[in-house]
Amino acid sequence: MPFETPPAQSEGESNTSSRRRDWAAGALGDASRAALAEDAKLFLHQSVSTPCLSVITKAEGPWIEDAEGRRYLDFHGNNAHHIGYGHPRLKKAIADQMDALPFAPRRFACEPATALARKLADIAPGDLSKVLFTTGGSDAVEVALKLARAATGRFKTVSFWDAFHGAGFGASSVGGEQLFRGGAIGPLLAGTEHVAPFACYRCPYGYPERDGQPDLDLCKMTCANMLRYVLEKEGDVAAVIAEPARAVPYIPPPGFWAAVRQACDDVGALLIFDEIPTGLGKTGRMFACDHDGVVPDILVMGKGLGGGILPIAAVIARPELDVAGDYAFGHYTHEKNPVTTRAGLTTIEIIEDEDLVENAARVGAHALARLHDMKDRHGVIGDVRGRGFLFGAELVKDRAGKEPAPELAEDVLYRCLDGGLSFKISMGNTLTLTPPLVVTMAQMVQALDVLEGAIADAAQAAGLA
Length: 465
Ligand SMILES: Cc1ncc(COP(=O)(O)O)c(C=O)c1O
Description:
Layout: H1 18-27, H2 30-42, E1 56-60, E2 63-66, E3 71-74, H3 88-100, H4 111-123, E4 130-134, H5 137-152, E5 156-160, H6 169-174, H7 178-181, E6 192-195, E7 209-210, E8 213-214, H8 216-219, H9 222-234, E9 237-242, H10 256-267, E10 270-274, E11 298-301, E12 313-317, H11 338-353, H12 356-377, E13 381-387, E14 390-395, H13 406-418, E15 421-422, E16 424-426, E17 430-433, H14 441-461
Parallel strand pairs: 3-15, 5-6, 5-9, 9-10, 10-11
Antiparallel strand pairs: 1-2, 2-3, 4-12, 7-8, 11-12, 13-14, 14-17, 16-17
Helix pairs in contact: 1-13, 3-11, 4-11, 9-10, 12-14, 13-14
The protein binds pyridoxal-5'-phosphate.
The site of pyridoxal-5'-phosphate has 14 residues, from helix 5.
């Protein structure tokens, strides 16, 4: 059954908007149009995916190239391209592994899987050290939820409205976006309670902000207090699951996660961090939660772990949570696949050897400062926020009224595509930039020049300059 009212766009820009059609009419040749029509004929249509934007023919380093020969700096990459596309060292490691041992059927251990598990235990925060692998992030979230149930003997969860945790049933249930949980697919998992997230620029509790920063004396961190309140009222919550830095992006107020960690401990709930997009350096630290000094009970990662080539995700838990040995909740065909686990291990080695986390911190700090400068110059930028290589700019019709400017955001996106920069829009009006960790200062400057030009031109065209 189609929706009576289409769900609010939250994840990515619309793939059926008239602005998208206008862009395609000017940018695509006959061959691309025919390929897109064939794609749309063959695949089930779904929001933010099919029908597609364009046809991709190459992906190398931070670049993608479409069938028209246009190159784009890919500041989206589904957050899977931390080490850039087609890293030669990773391709060789994968090829060598395929020669040595291409698959491990269940019941057999293999060296790449144990080596990756050991490496994850090494780099993970605190004493997180017991691992399960899955093929995708959503499946890893399901494993984490089941593990939390098994370990606590409880089934309820608390998570954030507006969060995305994957497309599976459990993941959609703890997710907070209408696109993934509304209308046609219900009913969802029982006991999945939600609270409003931290979002200081648009505080759901109505507290004012200054330059995107909270006034903690005034708000007393009501968002964290409400989480505690719900945990106490429910009394039997198995776990809180959340992204430590929201991919929208939104950065937590200082002390937020310490307060939530304490609230979880006080009521016997576990804390699960979904670091599927943010893990392995995206925020300029190996894990986003490292910024907050808070260790979860279970951490979920994926995306970049496969080096932008192979699908692999992981759950890593405190050793005390290894309590469900009689069950089989991580029974996946590719649970110990030697090729995907070799890819994961080599990807982490590349991140370490090439100092990519440090690069994201250094170049990301420059990018954030430049975005703040842009905000000073362009009244349509209402808020700038981010950390490392996770950053964004929220576009508004006017600074004081903060009315979102989704059409303007779309116009900026398509102008940027014309200028060779790809990214995505979140929550309708937030330009969300998540470059691969290999992006150099020069490439960052190039991308931000394109972005600033597009914002200026789009604001002018909309009469908002
Ligand atoms: C925060 C978060 N959790 C979970 C997922 C789901 O990962 P996957 O698409 O690999 O299932 C995503 C994917 O975008 C994500 O951003």
